[in-house]
Amino acid sequence: MTLYHFKNFEMLDPEVGSLKGGYELVVENDKIREISSKPIKSKSADVVDCGKRTLMPGLIDSHVHAVLSEVVIRNMESVPLTLMTARAADLLKRMLDRGFTTVRDTGGADWGLKEATDKGLIPGPRLFIAGKAIGPTGGHSDGRRRTDAGTRCHCCNALAFSMGVADGVSGVRRAVREEMRQGADQIKIMMSGGVASPYDPLDSLQFSMDEVHAAVEEAHAFGRYVCAHAYTPEAITRAAKAGVRTIEHGNLIDDASAKMMAQKGMFLVANLVTYFEMKKRAAEYGMSADMLAKNDLVIDGALRSLEICKRHGVPVAYGTDLLGQLQTEQSQEFTIRAQVVSPIEIIRSATTIGAQLLRMEGKLGCLKPGAFADLIVVNGNPLKNLGLFQDQGKHLSAIMKGGKFHKNALH
């Protein structure tokens, strides 16, 4: 049995929304055993003196792509799975370095990577996986070139490993069942065009209503849910009507589609940083002018989408969706959102709302007895300075995942 006794900290409970002093916390094995405003007696525990720093739950990024290690994802077709995995291991470690103790991968990471992080074979956050992102022929997840007549083998092509194509109700059912057989925590489908795919217009509608209904029905039957890549109000509305649970991106959302999402109890997973970073840097990595033009279309609505969702009561989770070399900017999402929402709202998006989205309330994103001991110790007050999440974890003195220290500079 491993015991840690945390003392001398300011507690940031996202549900409360302000710092509270005078508390102590005991971790037993991988869980929080006790939190008290009175001294806790625990003679056998290792004492962790936080030196008046802020102790809070580990962060949750609800939209990452651990295996997409190229900004231009078409380049992944020449990456063998061995190299893909090695790169993913490095990207996952760096996410944990930044204090993200849980991430939700929305296309690419499989049960093997999840098992490797769960077992400690590679350092990384808790992984909630979608397996392959699924879309129709010619859609956002169709990675073929126009000169490709058939499908490509995924055993030596990381792009084909990450995305799948399915057509018709029976084809969608089969594809969804296969991803769930492979251990998917959620099913990712494409319902509109995308920035990083070369051939589909941004406002294209992908998958018919019958196909989406089939995906939702199969996911629900397996105890899972569907998340949908969608930008436009039309795509968002179709997803809502079909029973999709979360909208990924949603930059062009309007009041009517947001109102419907609220009525259906849906989540938006916004990821603004990826568009700002692609605008600044993607051209140097080879992103085409057509893709960058699509990026310009969605960047205008990025901050406005947060305001619309707040107005209608749609919970917004923290997501980043960064590709390849841009993934170093994962924590910049905090400062971008701060232009329109408060620090505590952003922190809740990366803790309590993320946990709700993952159906892990009381286990992740909180400081409660029985929750997983996923904790970070911050050198200051993030409610007053969101920049403390920047600089690749430089301002985090301790990072604990499942009761084990990934980093401990508290001496």
Query: Which of globular, elongated, flat, extended, rod-shaped describes the shape?
Result: globular
What's the Cα radius of gyration? 21 Å
What is the second-level CATH architecture of the largest domain? Answer: Alpha-Beta Barrel
CATH topology of the largest domain: TIM Barrel
CATH homologous superfamily placement of the largest domain: Metal-dependent hydrolases
Number of strands: 18
Helix content: 25-40%
- Structure annotation, total helices: 13
pLDDT averaged over residues: 93
Structure classification = alpha/beta
How is the biggest beta sheet arranged?
A: 8 strands, mixed
Task: Report the CATH C-level class of the largest domain.
Answer: Alpha Beta
Sheet-strand content, in percent, reads 15-25%
| N- to C-terminal distance | 23 Å
Number of domains: 2
Unreliable stretches:
none
Describe the structure.
The structure is a single chain. This protein is α/β, with parallel strands linked by helices and 411 residues long. It folds into two domains: 3-58 and 366-408, Roll (Urease, subunit C, domain 1), CATH 2.30.40; 59-330, Metal-dependent hydrolases (TIM Barrel). The protein is built from 13 helices and 18 strands. It has helices at residues 81-97, 111-118, 158-162, 168-181, 209-221, 233-242, 255-264, 273-281, 289-299, 302-312, 332-337, 343-349, 352-357; strands spanning 3-12, 19-28, 31-36, 46-49, 54-57, 59-64, 100-105, 126-128, 133-135, 163-165, 187-190, 226-230, 246-249, 267-270, 316-318, 375-378, 396-401, 404-408. α4 packs parallel to α5, α6 (233-242) packs parallel to α7 (255-264) and α8 runs antiparallel to α9. It is globular, with a radius of gyration of 21 Å. The protein starts with a strand and ends with a strand.
